[in-house]
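PROTEIN DATA CARD
Card holder: Xaa-Pro aminopeptidase
Chain length: 463
Origin: Acaryochloris marina
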Amino acid sequence: MLTPTDQSCLHQRRHQLGQQFEGQALLWSGVAPSRNFAANQFPFRASSHFLYLAGLPLQNAVIGLEAGQLTLFWDEPHPDTALWHGPSLSRAEIADQIGAETHLPLSAVSSWASHAATLPVPSSATHQQQIEWLGRPVPPIQGSQDQESNRDHHLANALIQLRLQQDEFALAQLRQAAEITVAAHLRGMRSTLNHTSEAAIRAEIESVMMAHQCPTAYASIVTVHGEVLHNDAYPHALAPGDLLLVDAGAETPLGWAADVTRTWPVSGQFSATQRDLYDLVLAAHDACIAAIQPGVEFRDLHLLAAQTIASGLVDIGILKGQPEALVERDAHALFFPHGIGHLLGLDVHDMEDLGDLAGYAPGRQRCDRRGLRYLRLDRPLRPQMLVTIEPGFYQIPALLQNPDLRQQYGDCVNWDRLAQFEDVRGIRIEDDVLVTPEGCQVLTSALPTQAPEVEAYVQGSTA
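Structure generated from the sequence above:
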């Protein structure tokens, strides 16, 4: 249920949208896809743009917005629904909850169809419904400038400006997601010595989220193969000497996400080589967070992480040369190929359904450089923006065994020295960081990052 404060925030969002976007807008919530037959469905997740303005995850609903006023289009549940799913609120009660001035059956959407802007939804069935009801194509929103005259493009830009900075309703949800995620990671650390498989640690972590009625915000990564950046399989045993990389985040029942990564030794103690590289990644993590304040370019944070990692790898002896020149050549990207982070909010990569339109400031586009091509965010930071900071070090065979890359960087990589670090497949440290007027606040700071404290949690020597 939404509180009066929540309802006030929703009203303010719609009022602000009305000031930035003229005309009618329709946003679909979507439907739960079927797994293998119609009645056996995957869990429902409403479209994030719908959730941002309606607040509740209503299935098969549409909201209409005009001049800050909200119309709910939704059909009353069939009487038989109560037999299988229990009683539900009426359309009038739902409309009162979300603060809709008007509520109508779903079929009444047709009265808005000829003039309304919209945004495409991930559900293919609902996307087809959008096309049929609006009588026009609803293509994906991209960052290309040739779409500036498109009304859907204008709606996307207006929503981006609202969603870039989190209001009090959002922050309350995001803090809740962060708190539950921290507790889940701590459970994973503390239970590691009692288990022998990735899957068992995943179960411990996700059980904490489930106990708070939170699904995962994305497929959890719980793996001893941290070099596989989006590893979503859990078949491996835990062996002495392994590092376990855990990237897992809770999503609140209203859809707001956390995104956190920690890496810890399954035996409870880093080896000397693991500790050297762990501390290097942590140095990049800490340097970026210390630099966050309004006006700082996120791209500069990425380059700061790259510079820190390159300098550390030179000190360790894995890279050879001047760190500045190595970063200019993108040599660091052999070991740190992804971006330093991304927006976080209702989506774990917030608003990434809009392509680079949300992540890249107007007039900017992705760079082809190896060290910059995967940067998800290229904007100056503003107060109340929430971002992730997640540097890493990985030994990815597809990169390190690529003959062209070995030739290109043969003069600056000490391959013999690198071989001494074979017990490090992947390390990543990630936190959720809120930009404040004075600097920043780490919402997930209760989860340890310093190696001795991480070891203590795994060993069970902390309270």
